[in-house]
Amino acid sequence: MSGPIERVSVEVTNRCAKACTFCYNQSGPAGATRWTTDDLISFGRDCATHGVRALSLGGGEPLELEGLCEVIAALRGLLWRSVTTSGDRLEELLDDLAAAAPDKVHVSVHFAEDADEVERAVGRARALEAHGIASGVNLLVRRSQLAPARRAAARLRAAGIDNRRVIYLPLRGDPGDTPTPEEIGTVAGGDAFQSTSCLLRCAPSPRFCSVRWDRTAAWCSYTSRRRPLVAPTFEALAAVLSGLGVRYCGGDDAHANVLEPAS
Fold this sequence. Notes:
single chain; alpha/beta; 7 helices
């Protein structure tokens, strides 16, 4: 590897009631996980001892994982712990989540054209803040839905959720519907914004990696170039990533400016 890994994303399950067709994790109501609570805690602790600073917990829908709050609580003070959720189970789990004290929870907006979904995200972000949990919004942006995305982003800003709290995610997997950086910039209102490290080109970040519900690891959540994690340890993770590279999620690698990491 070419540098220290600072952030590890673990997609703890691919179970999710929404079953979005574009989901990079192929999530659905019948989804599963190969992680146990104890393994997630052990993995997080070991990563922390090797310099990892942040652990992102997603899915699927991470709130579907029994024991998620136990994992968050057990890693308190060791890692910066964040959760990305659709929010559909948030209300029933808010008290347990507040007790576990994650450092931040991001609520996803997958369909910017659905005004009700945007309003639910605003309400859930406010509910998290009322429970003492820092909140943000992940806004998925499609080229075919730029105008609704601009309206959704404007609504978030009007509600006090500005670009410091919003991550603008370009749709992946469908090159015809993937927005350009300039198009996302218009959605963000022309101001500085946060997005994925691959927004400008497909390339592995030496500071970030992804581990899936099936315990395969990669430099990116979207790439199909993955290897199995033989044990829930940082050493096993480093071995998986060494020389792995990425495969462009939008089609032909030849058109992606794909970069391989130094081994």
